[in-house]
Amino acid sequence: MVASPPETAQSTSQTDSTNSTISTTETQAVKREIQDDMEVSVAKKPKLDSSTKGATIATTPTTNMIDTKDSDKKQIDIGKEAAMEAEVRAAQQRAIVPLEIRIKSFREMLAEKEVSAFSTWEKELHKIVFDARYLLLTSKERKQVFEKYVKERAEEERREKRNKMKERKDEYRKLMEEANLHGKSSFGDFAQKYGKDERFKNIEKMRERESLFNEYLLEVRKREKDEKAMRREQVKRDFMAMLREQSDIDRHSRWSETKKKIDSDPRYKAVESSTTREDWFREYVKILKDERKRDKEKERERKDRERRERGEKEREHKQEPESEEGGESEIDNDKEKEAKDLEKAARVEASLREREKEVQRTLAVHLRDRDNEREQHKHDEAVQHFNALLADLVRNSELVWKEAKRQLRKDHRWELAELDREEKEKLFNEHIEQLSKKKKEKFRELLNETIEVTLSSSWKEVRKLIKDDPRYSKFSSSEKKCEREYKEYIKDKLQSAKADIQELLQETKLITHKSLSTVQENESTMKELEEILKKDRRYLVLDHIPDERTELVMSYLEELEKRGPPPPPTASEPSRRSK
């Protein structure tokens, strides 16, 4: 029996007046509504097991069974009546309690009964239909509040799930930080070491764990690269400072002589590569040359300025009145001589300047060519290192770049090959292509050596003949790929056989431009021709496609007929006759 919801303290007169306000029509509608809900709820109750039913029927007399049915029916009727009465009382209360309070109570009931946010009204009804708060709302209001509740609850659960996942990812990241990973760390080693850690297990899918690991490893590699660049820049600054401290180094110094003086300095040893040391030394010498050039420019500007000042003073002296002619003549001679000296000095200086520029240009070209040669040599050396690495580690032609890269990174030669990512991938693809080509050649060599293989042989037959040969297993682990290559092989062989037939027909002197008409007039002529051709193995190769072979012969005869009789040996070429 459904208990009525707790009623607020009201006087008897108020209850009677409320009861009087409910019409007969409304009461009937309420009864129909509660009856429908009862039927849905009863339908969801578990049925008796068939074996149990059978046992009960077997041990219970017929009269008892009929009494039980009558009793059950009475109990259902009593239950329906009680439910209807409860609904009527609830309708009375709905008229008194505000809608907001009733909705709040109904939502509290849904939360207490742990109604699933991703279920339906019909599936969750049996959880709430017997609660007193269920009757606080009408049927329409219940479903509306239910739909709104599950929608909000679903969004809350999704948000909670996202937050929980974010927390798990943060914990997983902390685990990776504690693991002190470096750029060459692999996920396999990490999983083996920390697989039992709860922060590792909290990320359910292994693929997601590896994806998060790879993302973190990219950050680690970038950080290591930046740190390496900063260390390299600091080492370079220290090396340059060491060179500047050497007072005997000028723009004409040679590296072979200079390095003997500084090779004991720790700043020299800090630079790992001897090529890098030499490059930085040349860069420092170039800086000295640029400084020297700037100093010369300043000196030349100073002299030009002084010369202009002297010229201005001379012009001022010319404008002043001269007191003595003898003195004036002597001054003019001195000025003329000084002007000639200045002009000569300017010419000499200009010539020296031009010569120095020419030497600088020649030296710059020479140094640039030498730098290009050095860079090319370094590049060729890196390519050789990487190709050697590929030859040692990559022997499977079906391996893809992404998987191969993980294996190659573990070898120290990966770092020696200072090539960009695109070039490494290109060299890898060329290596794979070469491997595939070699395996394909070996596979076709095996087919050629197998005498039983003919143009009409099926793959199933051929496979039995060659499956024990290592060249078959090495070609590919995929039988479909082997079959596909075999079909390509047969196709190429067929094309070659057809070309051989064409060559045979050309070699057969009995065939002329008249042969087609002869064959058409007398069928036996064709048979005689075939008998002659059968003596050659090239003709017999196409025994499995006789119709197609006959078409090739007839096509050749038609072509000869179109050409007509061959010209006599003494006839000139048409082009020559036209001239």
From TrEMBL:
Any one cellular-component term (Gene Ontology): nucleus
Family matches, as InterPro entries: FF_domain, FF_domain_sf, TCRG1-like
Database matches in SUPFAM superfamilies: FF domain
Keywords, alphabetical: Coiled coil, Repeat
Gene3D superfamilies associated with the record: FF domain
Coiled coil residues, start to end: 151-182, 402-449
Biased composition (Acidic residues): 322-331
Every FF domain range: 99-152, 164-219, 232-287, 434-492
Region of interest: Disordered: 1-72, 246-276, 292-377, 559-579
Compositionally biased residues, Low complexity: 8-28, 52-66
Biased composition (Basic and acidic residues): 292-321, 332-377
An example molecular function term from Gene Ontology annotations: RNA polymerase binding
Record PANTHER family: TRANSCRIPTION ELONGATION REGULATOR 1, WW DOMAIN-CONTAINING PROTEIN
Name of the featured protein: FF domain-containing protein
